[in-house]
C-alpha cells in the first residue's frame, strides 16, 4: 500500500485510517529525519523520506534532486534503477566519492538499497539524482514530480520540494 504523510497532521490521520502500518512507517521516518518538518512516501518496504531539491543556480542548466534517505525496511535487497521528472530532459543517478583527495561524482547504473538499511541521498551524502537539462529554473517553494523506478517494486512518483537547506553546501554542487 502506498500512502503519503506530512508530519504534524500525520499522526491523527494515521490513527484514523491506517492503524499499525502507518505508525510503524512514521517511527522509521523519524529515525532518518533531521528536521522537524518534512514529507515522505512509503512504497512497499521502502520509505522515501523527504524528496527535495535546492534552487537551481543562475546560468546552470543542470540541477540536483535529493532524498533525506531511502530506507529499505524489508528483508530483500532492492535497487533504484532510474528516475525521471517532467522538469528535466533526463535524470542521472550520481555517486560522489573522494578520489585522491578530490570529490568526484560519476554516474552509476543503479543505487543499491540493502535490507534494513537507510541509504542517504542527501545533498551532502554519497548519492544524489542529477537533473540534466532543466526545462525551467527551480525556485524556492516550487514542487515537482519525480518518478523513481525500482528493480523489484516498480515505480513510485514523489513530490519534490524546492528549498534552501540550512547547511548550504549544496551551492558547491556544480558540473
Ligand atoms: Cu551530480
Q: Tally the beta strands.
A: 12
What's the multimeric state? single chain
Could you give me the name of the CATH homologous superfamily?
Answer: PCu(A)C copper chaperone
Radius of gyration, whole Å: 16 Å
Task: Return the structural class.
Answer: mainly beta
Provide mean pLDDT, rounded: 81
Element order, helices and strands? EHHEEEEEEEEEEE
How many strands, which pairing sense, and closed or not: the largest β-sheet?
A: 12 strands, mixed
**Total domain modules:** 1
Unreliable stretches: 1-36
Describe it:
- This protein has 175 residues and is mainly beta.
- It has a single domain, classed as PCu(A)C copper chaperone (Immunoglobulin-like).
- 13% of the residues lie in helices and 49% in strands.
- It has helices at 10-17, 19-32; strands spanning 3-6, 39-43, 46-53, 63-72, 78-84, 88-99, 102-107, 111-113, 117-121, 127-134, 143-150, 154-162.
- Strands 1, 2, 3, 4, 5, 6, 7, 8, 9, 10, 11 and 12 form a twelve-stranded mixed beta sheet that branches.
- α1 (10-17) packs antiparallel against α2.
- The termini are far apart.
- The model is unreliable at 1-36 (pLDDT under 50).
- Bound molecules: copper (II) ion (CU).
- Copper (II) ion is lined by residues 64, 94, 105, 128, 130.
Q: What's the short story on this structure?
A:
The chain has helices at residues 10-17, 19-32; strands at 3-6, 39-43, 46-53, 63-72, 78-84, 88-99, 102-107, 111-113, 117-121, 127-134, 143-150, 154-162. By secondary structure, it is mainly beta. The protein has a single domain (43-166), classed as Sandwich (Immunoglobulin-like).
Amino acid at each position: 500500500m502506498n500512502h503519503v504523510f506530512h508530519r504534524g497532521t500525520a499522526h491523527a490521520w494515521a490513527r484514523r485510517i491506517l492503524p499499525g502500518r502507518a505508525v510503524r512507517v512514521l517511527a522509521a521516518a523519524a529515525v532518518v529525519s533531521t528536521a522537524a518538518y518534512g514529507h515522505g512516501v512509503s512504497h512497499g518496504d521502502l520509505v522515501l523520506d523527504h524528496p527535495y531539491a535546492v534552487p537551481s543556480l543562475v546560468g546552470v542548466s543542470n540541477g540536483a534532486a535529493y532524498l533525506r534517505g531511502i530506507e529499505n525496511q524489508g528483508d530483500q535487497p532492492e535497487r533504484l534503477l532510474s528516475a525521471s521528472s517532467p522538469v528535466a530532459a533526463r535524470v542521472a543517478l550520481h555517486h560522489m566519492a573522494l578520489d585522491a583527495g578530490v570529490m568526484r561524482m560519476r554516474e552509476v547504473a543503479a543505487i543499491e538499497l540493502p535490507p534494513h538499511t537507510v541509504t542517504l541521498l542527501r545533498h551532502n551524502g554519497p548519492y544524489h539524482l542529477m537533473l540534466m537539462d532543466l526545462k525551467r529554473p527551480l525556485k524556492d517553494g516550487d514542487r515537482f514530480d519525480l518518478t523513481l523506478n525500482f528493480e523489484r517494486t516498480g515505480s513510485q512518483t514523489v513530490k519534490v520540494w524546492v528549498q534552501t537547506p540550512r547547511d548550504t553546501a549544496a551551492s558547491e554542487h556544480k558540473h
